[in-house]
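<instruction>
Derive C-alpha cells from the sequence
<data>
Labelled lines for chain and fold
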Amino acid sequence: MTKTWGIFYNKNSGSGEATKKAELCQKRLAEKDSKVVLITGDSLDESQRHLANSLPDLDSLIVIGGDGTLNAAFSVIVKNNHPLPVGIIPAGTVNNSLKDIIFRKTQKTRLQISSYQHDSAWSD
C-alpha cells in the first residue's frame, strides 16, 4: 500500500530554505513510491486550512520550519483531534522548540546511560 506523506512548510519564510527542503523531501519520498502532498499557502490561515483539509488523507506529516511553523501544524493536528506520526526538519531562525526537544531527549539518554553504568558497576 502506498503511504501518503504531507509536507507542511511556510513558503514565505526566509530565503526560501523551507521550500527547497520541501521539494527535496518530495523528490526523495517519490523515489520510494510514496504519495506526497505539499501543504502551504500564502498566509498562515490558508496554510492551516490546507493542512486541516489534508489530514484525513495523510499517513504521516513532515513539518519543515521553525517554532512558528511547528506551532501552526500542531495546533491544527490537536484542534482536529487527528494524531499521526510527525517528522520535523528544522528550517527556522532560532528553532527553540527543536532545541528543547533534542535537549530533553539527550538528557534522558544521558540519565539512562548513567544509571546503567552505575548499576553495572555494582553487579560484578
